[in-house]
Structures are given as C-alpha cells and as structure tokens.
Amino acid sequence: MRKERFTKEMQIDYEKYARIFKVMSDPKRLKIIDMLSEGELCACKILEEFHITQPTLSHDMKLMCDLGIVKARKEGKWMQYSLDIDVMNEVYKTVGRLMIPGDYAGLLNCNCNTEKEEKNKLQRQQSKSGCSCSIEKGEMNHE
C-alpha cells in the first residue's frame, strides 16, 4: 500500500512544506501560532507578550503571511493577525501523511468536527470581544 502515497494526486510539495516547517521551527513564531489559534489578535497584544520591537514582529509576521500560514488586515494604526485555517489544516494533514504509516493516513481526512469547532471558536471570540452579531447557520462553508 505504500506505493499509493506517491500517486500524482497525493504528491506533497516538499519545498513548500520545508519552508513552512522552517518558519514554524522558531519557538517565538510557534508560540504566536498557538496564540492565534485562539482567534485574531492585534499586533500590540503580540508585542506585549514577547517584549520585542515592532520591526522584529513585522519580520516574523511577514514570513508567516508570505507562506499563507497567517492572514493580516489593517485596523486603524495596528495590524490584526489570524491563522489561515485552511492552510493550517493542510499542514496538519501533510505532517500526518509524512509521519503515519500509509494504511492509517486516511484517518487524517476526517473533517467531521471542523465546522462545529470553528463555529464554537467564533462564538467564544465574539463573547470575549463583546460582538453582538449572530452566527448564521450555513455561514461556514467547508469541504
């Protein structure tokens, strides 16, 4: 069954993932990813956590944004950062494909709870921020 891992539709872009893993191998960036897993954060909050300069943070965030791990948007004078969930799911699945024997790798393709987890996370974020908008059923379209 090991041969199936190398079919055209399952090929891994090794160069791309090597760059992603290299960026993620920095402990500070890994902690930023962990922080962003709880939801969008202002650059000012990240700066407070690490006690680093704004140019240092900008450099780290640019590396992650360029790889698609993190999304950025400007709000006022500050940047707001969030994880790109689709990219992070692909990273997770790729790590699994690389580490889990071929017969079990299919277990990583289960997206059973993804939509429910994202909806719950959004509700938690809204309650923390005081946002009063509602989450409509069917708003979150994931394949």
C-alpha termini separation:
26 Å
Unreliably modeled segments? 131-143
Radius of gyration: 17 Å
Number of domains: 2
> Level of helix content?
40-55%
Annotated CATH architecture of the largest domain: Orthogonal Bundle
Share of β-strand residues: 5-15%
- How many individual β-strands? 3
Shape: globular
What name does the CATH topology of the largest domain carry? Arc Repressor Mutant, subunit A
Q: What's the CATH H-level superfamily name of the largest domain?
A: Winged helix-like DNA-binding domain superfamily/Winged helix DNA-binding domain
Q: How would you spell out the order of helices and strands?
A: HHEHHEEHH
What would you call the structural class?
mainly alpha
Task: Walk across the major sheet and give the strand order.
Answer: 1-3-2
Q: How large is the count of helical segments? A: 6
User: What is the CATH class name of the largest domain?
Assistant: Mainly Alpha
Q: How confident is the prediction overall: mean pLDDT?
A: 78
Sketch the major β-sheet. Answer: 3 strands, antiparallel
Describe, in short, the structure shown.
This protein is mainly alpha-helical and 143 residues long. It has helices spanning 14-24, 27-36, 43-50, 54-66, 85-99, 114-129, and strands at residues 41-42, 70-75, 78-83.
